[in-house]
Design a protein that fits this description.
Layout (H helix, E strand, L loop, with lengths): L8 H28 L6 H96 L9
Helix pairs in contact: 1-2
Length: 147
């Protein structure tokens, strides 16, 4: 069996705060129930009710403030993410344009190479014809051998 690890200080503090909140709310429910049934509260119970309500109000204010900070942070993160997406899209568009330009240049180079090869083959063909013609015209008619 794996050894149990102790909860961290922060976790213990959260657990303690949750237990206190549960106890405070249970106490509030009892006090409110007594008020609803018309049972008068003692001065000590009245002070306890006030203290519990003040803590709940403070916690609610802190929670709203924390939520506001989180929402602001999320808006900033969302704006940063949108900016990063726009930048990536622009980079992709720029790369696409560069690729199209490269392909156009490459196609032009290939066309030039094909033209050069065609000229070379044409020159080679003319050279072969010329060589053949030269050979034909430099031949002397053969004379029969004399006995």
């Amino acid at each position: 069996m794996a050894p149990r690890t102790r909860p961290s200080k922060a976790r213990r503090a959260r657990q303690r705060a949750a237990a206190e909140r549960t106890a405070r709310r249970d106490s509030l429910l009892v006090l409110l129930s007594r008020i609803q049934r018309g049972i008068p509260l003692t001065p000590t119970e009245g002070a306890l009710l006030r203290a519990h309500v003040e803590v709940e109000l403070t916690d609610a204010d802190q929670a709203r403030a924390a939520l506001g900070r989180q929402e602001a942070q999320h808006r900033q993160q969302l704006a940063a993410a949108h900016a990063a997406i726009r930048e990536a899209e622009q980079d992709a568009a720029d790369l696409g344009e560069q690729l199209r330009a490269y392909r156009a240049v490459e196609e032009q180079r290939q066309a030039e190479h094909r033209q050069a090869l065609s000229r070379l083959l044409t020159i080679r063909s003319y050279s072969n014809v010329r060589t053949s013609l030269d050979e034909m015209y430099t031949l002397t008619p053969s004379t029969p051998e004399q006995p």
